[in-house]
Amino acid sequence: MSRKFIRFVSVLLVLSLALGSGFALIQAQDEPIKIGLSFSDFATERWKNEEVLMRQLLEDLGYEVISQEANHDVVLQNNQIDNMVTQGVQAIIVIPEDGDAVSTAVDNAAEAGVYILSYDRLIKSPNIAAYLSFNNVEVGRQQALGVLSALDIDGGEWTAENPVRLVKLGGSPTDNNAILFRQGQDEILEPYVEEGIIEVVADQWVDNWDATNALRIMENILTAQNNEIDAVVASNDGTALGALQALSAQGLAGVVPISGQDATADGVNSIVRGELTVSILKDIRDLSPLAVELIDSLVQGEEIPELEEYTMAELTNDETVEGTVMAYFLPVYQVNADNAYELVVESFFQSYDDVYRDIPEDERPPVPEEMEAESEG
Ligand code: GAL
After folding, report:
1. Per-position DSSP letters for 266-320, written without gaps between them
2. Alpha carbon 23 to chain centroid distance?
3. What secondary structure letter does DSSP report for 321?
4. Which of 35, 45, 189, 236 sits in a 20 to 30 Å window from 154, CA-based?
5. Percent above pLDDT 70 for the chain
6. What is the pLDDT of residue 25?
C-alpha cells in the first residue's frame, strides 16, 4: 500500500468519524427538551383549559410535554412527579393538590436539577424556582365585597338586633390559596362581625373543592339553621353552585347572596340567571403564557426580570413558615350581573352561548360584534 493511499484512507476515516459524531450531536440536539405539567385534578374547569393552553405554547416552542393529572390524590401526584424526573424532564409546572405534601417529590426533583414552577398554588418548599399566581387575598376581598354590596350592608336594614346570618364556605384546606381567600374575606367581614352586624352562623371548609361536598354541607347548615341564612361567602364557583343546589331546594336561590370564583361557564350562567351573585375573573390567558415564558427562560438560562422576592410567611399567612420565593401575581376582577357581559363575554373568556345557555333569546343581550363578524366571515 502506498503512503499516499494510507493517508487518503486515514483522512477518510477521520472525516467519517467527525461526520458521525457531528451527526450524533445533531441528533442529540434534535431530541426535544421535556417539560412536565403536573395537575392536582381536572374537576375544576380551569385546570383542563390551562393544560391545553400550556401544552400548545410549550409545543410551539419545540418542547415535548409530559402531562399528568392526580385526581386529588397526594401520593399519586408525588409519584407522577418522580416519574417525570425519571423520564428526564428539565422543568415541571406543578399545580399542587397539597402545598405541604408535594414538597417531598418537589425537593427530590430540584435536587436532580429540575426547575419547579409552582403554578397558581404555593408549594411550601424553598427549592422551587418560582411561583406565579393571582392576587389571592384580593380574590377573597372581592368575594366578600360582592356579597355585602348585594345585601346593601350599610343601608340601615342590618343592625346588631337584626344581624346578617352569614355562612362561610372555605375551599380545600390543603390548598394554600384557600387560606389566602379566607384572609381577604375576613379582612372585609371582620369589622361588621365585631360590630355585631354580621353573625357567622356556620364556618366550614370543603375538601377537594368538591361541589357535592359543598351541597351536603349546605344542606346540613340549612337544616341546623331552620333555613335562616342571609348570605354565603363561598370560595369558588364549583362549591358555590353545589351550595346553590341546596339553597334552591329551599327556595332560597336568587334570594341569598352567594360568592364564587373563576368565572366558569356554569358560574357566569348562574350570575346572568340571577342566582350566583358574584364570581372572580382570573384571566388564565395571561397566567399560562407567563408560566411558559418563565420555563423557557429558566431552561435557556436567561434572566427573568418580572419576579420579586416574597417571604413564605407572608405568602402563607403563617409566621412559622421559613424561607423566601421569587414570585409574581396577576390582578383579579369581580364579575357580577352588571359587568358579566363586558368582562366575560366581550373578552371571550367564556362563550356567549355558554353564558346565555337556557336563557330565552329575547332576554339575551346582543351577540358581541366581533363574534358576529367571525360567524359571518
Ligand atoms: C384554587 C384556585 C382557584 C380554584 C380552586 C379550585 O387554588 O386558585 O382558581 O380553581 O383552586 O380548583
Report:
1. HHHHHHHTTSS-EEEE--HHHHHHHHHHHHHHHHHT---TT-EEEEHHHHHT-TT
2. 43
3. -
4. 236
5. 90
6. 40
Position 332 pLDDT exceeds 50? yes
CA of 82 to the centre of ligand 1 (A): 24
Separation in Å, CA 109 to CA 59, 74, 210: 22, 16, 29
Rounded to two decimals, the pTM is 0.91
Same domain membership, residue 67 and residue 200: no
Q: Ligand 1 pocket, 210 CB below 6 A?
A: no
- What tens digit of pLDDT does each residue of 80-114 get? 999 999 999 999 999 999 999 999 999 999 999 99
CATH number, position 273: 3.40.50.2300
Contact 39 CB / ligand 1 (< 6 Å): no
**Domain termination site, one of 330, 349, 365:** 330
Ligand 1 centroid to 121 CA: how many Å? 8
For the Cβ of 120 lying below 6 angstroms from any atom of ligand 1, the answer is yes
Owning domain of residue 323: 3-128+283-330
Question: Is residue 296 lining ligand 1, measured as CB closer than 6 Å?
Answer: no
Residues 298, 363 share a domain? no
Q: Report whether residue 181 contacts ligand 1, using a CB cutoff of 6 Å.
A: no
Tell me the CA–centroid distance for residue 282 and ligand 1, in Å: 10
Residues 273 and 250 in one domain: yes
pLDDT class for 373, splitting at 50, 70, 90? low
d(CA 368, CA 373): 9
Q: Is 38 in the pocket of ligand 1 (CB under 6 A)?
A: no
Average pLDDT, the chain: 92
